[in-house]
Design a protein that fits this description.
The complex is a heterodimer of chains A (about 80) and B (about 270). Chain A is about 30% helix and about 25% strand. In chain A, helix 2 links the parallel strand 3 and strand 4. A four-stranded mixed beta sheet of chain A has the order 1-2-3-4, with helices on one face. By secondary structure, chain B is an alpha/beta fold. Helix content of chain B is about 45%, strand content about 15%. In chain B, the strands form two sheets. In chain B, strands 3-2-1-4 form a four-stranded parallel beta sheet, sandwiched between helices. Chain B has a three-stranded mixed beta sheet with strand order 5-6-7, covered by helices on one side. In chain B, helix 2 packs across helix 8, helix 5 packs parallel to helix 6 and helix 9 runs antiparallel to helix 11. The termini of chain B are far apart. Classes of the chains: A alpha+beta (about 80), B alpha/beta (about 270). Chains A and B meet through strand 3, helix 2 and strand 4 of A and helix 11 and strand 7 of B.
């Protein structure tokens, strides 16, 4: 079940993400999962930075902090050679 | 490549082999993971053709895992049999409470004991190890109730030692990542169904074909929360890979795809 984040909550999340080098367009909370929508899949922060950000945003009922992949996934070739 | 063992580990292996010889015949519950592979290798060393590795095939076993099990059994040299059963016929299992594994392992090991009886074998062994005691493992209670032989647990061998021993014995699965059954991807309280299991299997196969080695696709009501190991997550963070991940997992049947920013952790759906 999705929970609508308040504008203040959303702004706080955006600011926290920006401090860690991640620009997001919006965020959504679904139960214990907080999904961040990155503005771009290019130049994402390092895995270590994303983990640190997840630690900061987690808690208060949020068990999982994630990057939403779908809204940007049509902007490229998903069948590109990945090997 | 084999590595040498310290005297204490050598002594434990010798003790287990001696113990197994005393049984005369044995069925090893065999998933193809490093734990059961070690037990199978020890059983074969002790008993040769009087040891049988049996893989229980059910809805929660991924096809890739079954194929792995066949190959590893062949590499060990142990006789390998399959037994089929259905977990989804059990409503307690489908309900997916925190006791799910108790019901699953009760069914699984009952099937293995029945198989043993058909083969004239009394002892059924599992690969439970000392590290399992510190985790949420209701399946261990099921094994205790059924009097399953657990040599690694009995001889206080932890996970790291399992891998060292397996490597020393030439077991190819010595460094194989842990792979729990597919139902562990579904949060407690959400019914385990055939469609959900197959969707998860297709999604994890997609990650396998993308080259990842340790991962889980957790099913949150149609949203795939993808966990990639901390060793591999950096290589996942390219636009091409993330787009491919999204498209392939949606092709697998998920409505939304999300990458967990912490990465793979065992039991992430267990109660906090």
């Amino acid at each position: 079940m999705s929970t609508t984040l308040s504008q203040d909550e959303l702004e706080h999340i955006k600011a926290t993400c920006a401090e860690h080098g991640l620009k997001i367009t919006h965020a959504r909370r679904k139960g214990v999962m907080l999904e961040l929508q990155p503005a771009s899949l290019d130049a994402l922060p390092s895995a270590q930075t994303l983990r640190s950000l997840a630690d900061v945003l987690g808690g208060d009922g949020i068990r999982y902090v994630t990057l939403g992949l779908d809204e940007l996934s049509t902007q490229g070739d998903g069948d590109a050679d990945l090997t | 490549m084999q590595t040498s063992l310290d005297p204490q580990m050598h002594a434990k292996i010798d003790a287990i082999v001696e113990q197994m010889r005393g049984f005369g015949r044995m069925v090893v519950a065999f998933s193809g993971g490093v734990d059961s592979s070690l037990v199978a290798a020890l059983a074969f060393r002790a008993l040769g053709d009087e040891a049988v590795a049996v893989t229980a095939v059910s809805e929660t076993l991924a096809s890739l895992e079954l194929e792995d099990a066949r190959q590893i059994a062949a590499q060990i040299g142990i006789r390998h049999e399959l037994v089929s059963f259905s977990e989804l016929e059990d409503e307690d299992f489908r309900a997916n409470t925190s006791a799910r594994c108790f019901f699953c392992q009760s069914m699984r090991f009952s099937q293995l004991q029945a198989m043993g009886q058909r083969l004239g074998v009394e002892v059924v062994a599992s690969g439970s190890n000392l590290s399992d005691l510190g985790d949420h493992r209701p399946g261990l209670e099921a094994m205790r109730q059924l009097h399953i032989y657990q040599p690694l647990l009995e001889h206080e061998i932890d996970k790291s030692q399992v891998r060292i021993m397996a490597r020393a014995l030439g077991v190819s699965a010595w460094d194989k990542p842990a792979k729990a059954c597919l139902s562990s991807r579904i949060p407690y309280g959400t019914e385990v169904t055939h469609d959900r299991l197959r969707r998860i299997e297709r999604a994890e196969e997609a990650l396998h074909h993308m080259g990842f080695e340790q991962y889980r696709v957790r099913d949150h009501g149609g949203t795939a929360r993808v966990e990639i190991s901390t060793d591999e997550i950096e290589q996942a963070l390219t636009p091409e890979r993330l787009r491919a991940m999204s498209q392939r997992l949606r092709q697998a049947g998920f409505e939304r795809v999300s990458l967990d920013m912490v990465g793979y952790r065992s039991g992430s759906l267990n109660p906090a």
